[in-house]
Write a structure and sequence with these properties.
734 residues, Beta-galactosidase, Chain A, domain 5, Glycosyltransferase, 2 domains, 13-stranded mixed beta sheet, 9-stranded antiparallel beta sheet, 27% strand, elongated
Length: 734
């Protein structure tokens, strides 16, 4: 028997049990599971109990001899031990004898919960992939259907290779994670594109998830149609939490293929190791058991347990030098087109080939934010051209793009001098208006009163108040005549911080009242309801990372002005959610673009965009300053550690010193798919990519006088806390 906190792990009759106070919680009567791909392309499975179990010096050794239906023979040797507060299970499988009809195999480690056998009696957590029941995720995310047998997702889709399930009634939780970040590259001379099982001797990643298998093999056609083959020698015990190795992306709904689409086509791509004599599988996972008060607490704690064990090394970068290089780059690419000033909307890499000057005031374009940053940097460096361009950008949006109805125009085309037919996005407004307010305050600190800018900000704020619903919400977007464009209210938190800051600058209490009302809506729907969705303007109203970020900023702004603990609690909860989208654990990714920094650096620091997304972008760079602020407010070391991690590791996507060969030092690629360990993405730069790096860099420096967390930590703690009281600084005082 092994003991992990309050839980006893026992070995009986060739099986495994987990008990707490002698009550059975989890079991596996037949722990040795093997699935086999045969020459007909059918993947069948069966499991057996251990043949012998022995315990010595706190380690349990469990062994079995597995013979396939065709006569291939494998030896399976498992060890169980308690290491650093987790149950480590290591599995070593060796192929001893083969039959020509057996082509490849997988093995699986599972536990069956006894509290319930129903999917919906549990909440699930897979970082960036599955939250609770994924009811607010996109159509092709895990668990959008509840009637499938397999919900498995390749571990490289997640920032940490981790999966947990929590019994909703009792809160009993089991989590599985990879024990070490030791994945290697798969074979790179093949393409995994159809619904088949692929043999790859090099693949070293698995899949986590849950399943409710039936004694049948599922075989999918290219078009997504499924055939069932009965397995008369296979027993199935119901719902289980699984780690299957190598990986399977199990039963994913997909879009139809070909001229005729089957009803609800499915994808079921599987990887197997070769059934070759002498081939050895060797991997290990960590398992934990605990009770947490709710889903958010479970998500936070299971993430943190794996975080410190699996986190990648810190990247070495001089953030001050990188900031200077990015600002020089932004100065150079900001051009004038008549009365319009701005940057390209997109430019291809590595040569920075500008393709469009369609400009957004915020979001992807971040034109107002870049204008403020140029103005600030121009003053710091006594650079008249940067000041001119910064003023040109802000004046263009406040003078040329104001709407008679009072709302700010959010999207235009600079070089053709025509407005883009996009709706008025609340997210866009929040980004742009905050940046213009920052620019106004900067000018005021120089003794310059930009009355036209303030008139623009007041008109815009008043327009927002006129659109606010009784419940405190605003719709996600509006037409130019002020009527709503979308029924969703998910972007409501995006204007909270702006309204708080307008209250500080103008002393008009109606702005604070509106911010609180919008915050209350966000508190109920996003914090309590766990509906972090609709954060971006180019995705549907689905669960995502950026909605959590804007909720975090909204709650923190309300705490900064009101000092009420409920807002800080909600800000921390949003931060805990957002953190789980970040690729923290290293795995190698093959990079086809020779100039891309990922040819030499790691992908850690990038992050999933929406729930179920299989890749990462660099948006977490925007949050380093905020996580450090949360650390100073709470004393929670996790926030300090994570702030430093993203302040450094996101920069791995930059050509930090010119050695990669991009046209500009500091250039960064937006992002791409990495889950298949072969990079696939749009090889381009967008304005937001650089803005989200210089924005926290400027805030770190303005608040604490340094760009690196390690340097900021040299200041006395009380001084850092005092500087962290933002709205009591000279920048905000009249």
């Amino acid at each position: 028997m092994l003991k992990l906190h309050d839980y006893d792990i026992l070995f009986k009759n060739g099986g495994v049990e987990v008990r707490k106070n002698d009550a059975l919680l989890y079991r596996n009567r037949r722990p040795v599971y093997v699935s086999v791909k045969d020459y007909g392309g059918i993947v069948s499975f069966r499991d057996i109990p251990y043949d012998c179990v022995d315990e010595k010096d706190g380690v349990v050794y469990a062994d079995a001899l597995f013979t396939t239906d065709n006569g291939s023979v494998l030896t399976v040797s498992d060890t169980y031990e308690i290491v650093s507060g987790v149950l480590k299970i290591r599995r070593k499988t060796r192929v001893e004898q083969t039959n020509a009809d057996d082509l490849g195999f997988q093995t699986k480690i599972s536990f069956y919960p006894v509290l319930s056998d129903e999917y919906l009696d549990y909440d699930y957590f897979s970082p960036g992939q599955w939250y609770k029941h994924n009811e607010f995720a996109g159509n092709y995310a895990l668990f959008k259907r509840h009637d499938l047998q397999y919900y498995w997702r390749k571990e490289t889709n997640s920032g940490l290779p981790l999966f947990a399930m929590q019994h909703i009634e009792t809160k009993e939780t089991i989590s599985m994670s990879r024990f070490a970040a030791d994945a290697t590259l798969p074979s790179l001379d093949r393409t995994y594109s159809e619904n088949y099982a692929y043999i790859d001797k090099k693949i070293s990643v698995g899949s986590f998830g849950v399943s409710k298998a039936k004694p049948e093999a599922l075989t999918y056609t290219y078009y997504g149609h499924m055939f069932r083959t009965p397995l008369p020698n296979t027993q199935c015990d119901g719902l289980s939490i699984d780690y299957i190795y190598p990986a399977t992306n199990g039963q994913d709904p997909i879009m139809g293929r070909g001229p005729y689409n089957v009803e609800q086509p499915m994808s079921n791509i599987t990887w197997v190791h070769p059934m070759q004599v002498g081939f050895i599988q060797d991997y290990a996972i960590a398992v934990t058991f605990d009770v947490y008060k709710d889903f958010s607490d479970m998500m936070k704690e299971t993430w943190r347990i794996a975080y410190y064990r699996l986190k990648d090394r810190l990247f070495k970068v001089d953030n001050e030098m990188l900031y200077e290089n990015i600002m020089r780059f932004l100065k150079d690419i900001t051009r004038q087109f008549g009365k319009a000033y701005g940057t390209p909307f997109v430019a291809q890499l590595p040569d920075f080939d500008p393709n469009s000057f369609s400009a957004e005031i915020g979001f992807v374009g971040q034109q107002a934010g870049i204008g403020y940053q140029l103005l600030r940097w121009g003053y710091m460096r006594d650079d008249a051209i940067a000041i001119e361009k910064g003023l040109g950008v802000i004046n263009y949006w406040t003078d040329e793009e104001r709407m008679e109805a009072g709302c700010p125009r959010t999207w235009t085309h600079l070089s053709v001098h025509q407005d883009d037919p996009q709706p008025e996005w609340i997210r866009e407004m929040g980004d742009g208006l905050e940046a213009i307010l920052d620019a106004y305050l900067l000018q005021r600190s120089k003794g310059i009163e930009e009355k036209g800018w303030m008139d623009y900000l007041v008109r815009s704020a008043d327009w927002l108040l006129s659109k606010q619903e009784e419940d405190g919400s605003l719709y996600r977007s509006y037409y130019y005549d002020g009527t709503r464009c979308m029924d969703s209210k998910a972007s409501t938190p995006c204007i909270v911080r702006f309204l708080v800051q307008m209250y500080i600058v103008t002393d008009r209490k109606e702005y604070l009242d509106a911010a609180v009302k919008a915050g209350e809506w966000t508190y109920v729907n996003e914090y309590l309801g766990f509906e972090y969705r609709g954060g971006t303007c180019d995705q549907s109203d689905v669960m995502d990372k950026e909605s959590g970020i804007y909720a975090m900023w909204a709650f923190l702004a309300l705490y900064d002005i009101l000092k009420e603990e409920k807002w800080l609690t909600a800000a921390c909860a949003a931060a805990d959610y957002v953190e789980t989208f970040t690729f923290v654990s290293y795995f190698p990714v093959d990079q086809p673009y020779p100039n891309h920094p990922f040819t030499r650096y790691h992908v850690t620091g990038t992050s999933n965009v929406t729930v179920g997304h299989g890749g990462g972008d660099c948006y977490m760079a925007a949050c380093s300053y905020t996580y450090y602020r949360l650390y100073l407010l709470t004393g929670d070391d996790q926030y300090r550690d994570f702030a430093e991690f993203i302040n450094l590791n996101v920069k791995q996507a930059n050509d930090i010193d010119g050695s990669c060969g991009y046209k500009y030092i500091g250039l960064i690629n937006e992002g791409g798919g990495i889950s298949d360990q072969q990079y696939r993405g749009r090889y381009h730069w967008l304005p937001w990519c650089s803005f989200v790096e210089v924005d926290p860099a400027s805030r770190f420096y303005d608040s604490f006088g340094a760009h690196e967390v390690a340097d900021i930590e040299k200041l006395p703690l009380e001084e850092r806390k005092q500087r962290n009281d933002l709205y009591n600084t000279l920048f905000w005082k009249k």
